[in-house]
Amino acid sequence: MRFSVVFMLGVLLLLTTNAAAEDELLSNRVAALEDSLQHSFFEKVDISGVIEVEAGYRSGFDDAKESDVDLTNVELGLEVELTSFASAFALAKWEEDGGEGVFIDEGGIVLGNLEESGFSISAGKLYVPFGVFETAMVSDPLTLELGETREGAVTVDVAGGGFYGSVYAFNSAVGDSEDDDMLDAYGLKAGYVFEGRVVTADLSLGYISNLTSSGGFSDYLDDEGIDLVDDYSAGVTASVVVSVADVTLIGEYLAALDNDYLATADDEPAAWNLEIDYSFAISGQPTVLAVAYQGTDEAAFLGLPELRVMAAMSYEIAPGLGVALEISHDEDYDQADGGTDESADAVICQLAVEF
Question: What is the DSSP letter of 175?
Answer without folding.
Answer: B
